[in-house]
C-alpha cells in the first residue's frame, strides 16, 4: 500500500476523485482517505504545515496502515538558478536546514546521536517518477535534487544564500525532511515531490492562485501515473 501525503486541500480533493472504494478515518486531526487508485491500494492524507505535522502523519501511515512506501507532494522555493517556477523537483535526499546543535560541536543540519542526518530517497521511485513526469507533464521541466526543510518560510535573500551555501540544496520547504526522517526510522522507501512556487526570495513572476492551480494539476497527473507504474512494477 502506498501512502500519499498531499500539501494542499485542493490537491487531496482532486486525488480523492480518482479513487475507488474510499473510506475515511480521522487520526491526530488528519483525515486519511483509504481506497484504490489505478488498481493499487493507497492512503491519501493532508498532513498540515510544518515538520511536526508531517512526522506525525508519516508515523500514522506506518503504524495504522502499514504502508510500504510514502510519496509526498507539495510546493517549494527554488535554491537552484536552473530550476524555475512551475518546474518539479524529485528528491535525491532530504535534510533539515534548521537543525542546529552547533553549540555542542556539531555541523549545521546534523541531528545529534543519529547515524545520519541526510535521508536518501528511494531510487526506484525517483526513476519511475521522472519517467512519469516527462510523459504526463511535458510542458514543465523535472529535476532530481536535494530537498532541505525547516519550520521557516524562506523569503530573504541572505537566508537563501546561507541555506544554499551550507547545505547545497536545490529547493526549500517545510515538511519533506521530516517525512524522510520518519520513513528512514521505519525503514520504508520515500520520495519527496516539489513543484516550485517561488525563488525563495522576494521575487515573483506569477500570481499565486494561478501557480497553485497549475501545480495541483501537474501533481495529480504525476501521482496517478506513479501509482499506475508502481502497481505494474
From TrEMBL:
Keywords: Amino-acid biosynthesis, Glycosidase, Hydrolase, Methionine biosynthesis
Nucleoside phosphorylase domain: residues covered: 2-227
Broadest EC class assigned to this enzyme: hydrolase
Any one Gene Ontology BP term: L-methionine salvage from methylthioadenosine
CDD domains: MTAN
Thylakoid recorded as keyword: no
GO CC annotation: cytosol
Molecular function GO labels: adenosylhomocysteine nucleosidase activity; methylthioadenosine nucleosidase activity
Gene3D superfamilies given in the database record: Nucleoside phosphorylase domain (3.40.50.1580)
Protein origin, superkingdom: Bacteria
Transmembrane segments: none
Pfam families, per database record: PNP_UDP_1 (PF01048)
Enzyme Commission code: 3.2.2.9
Pathway assigned to this chain's UniProt record: Amino-acid biosynthesis; L-methionine biosynthesis via salvage pathway; S-methyl-5-thio-alpha-D-ribose 1-phosphate from S-methyl-5'-thioadenosine (hydrolase route): step 1/2
Keyword Electron transport found: no
Record's protein name: adenosylhomocysteine nucleosidase
